[in-house]
Amino acid sequence: MNIEQFINKNIEKRDVYIKLLDVVNRVERTWQEQFTDFLTPDEQYFLNKVAEGREIVIKYFGGKESFERAVALISKVEMDIEFPVDIIKVKGNFKFEKLTHRDYLGTLLSLGIKREKIGDINVFDDGAEIYILRDFSDYVIYNISKIKHTGVKLEKITIDQARERLDTFEEKIVNVSSLRLDAIVSGAYNLSRAEGANLVKQGNVKLNYVLNDDQSFKVNEGDIVSVRGYGRFLFSKVLGYTKSQRLCVLIKKYK
Question: With b meaning 16 or more CB within 10 Å and e meaning fewer, what string describes 186-207?
Fold first, then answer.
């Protein structure tokens, strides 16, 4: 699939993709490196596609190993340069109120900060760690003293002090009749084959961030499937066959 087809298949993000394409073209033309805002996985996928076959180097930073949102450095040559990202640690007494990802994100957005300026928010029992563009970190620290009903203290930490994300997957073993897209979707969410087929046919399913309405399309190990209204999962691997010769597969649902 070429770049134009990719954009047309994801029309709701057309403006974002065109902006990324313009950035790559500008870096290629001027040799001036450039950082992006935090990119979602589909935006990273698109950026990698744009860079294929071109003399462009892309590096990402979004935290430790298993980050999801990331800032990209786009350049003509390999560069060792610090990313403009700060990590904010949130501390408080969470004994009486358990805060969720939505609580932390909502508080940040209420300050007028756009979502693309904020990276992953890793939530733990004793607080959270927020990845954010450096231009906004001091503003956040000075303006947040409470999240919901809980008083909090915020401070910057280094990447070495940051913790690994907790397991973001829920593993599930399902038995399916084939590796068709509709069969995999049905198995992942305990739907009938007809219900899974309708989701695909009606344009509610993306495969590797691209809308795919082909019910019979074969899903491969490592593919990421997004289903509107249900969530997203990684098709991990085929484990074998059952006695009735159905495929036994492992999927990992994003929490």
Answer: bbbbebebeebbebbeeebbbb
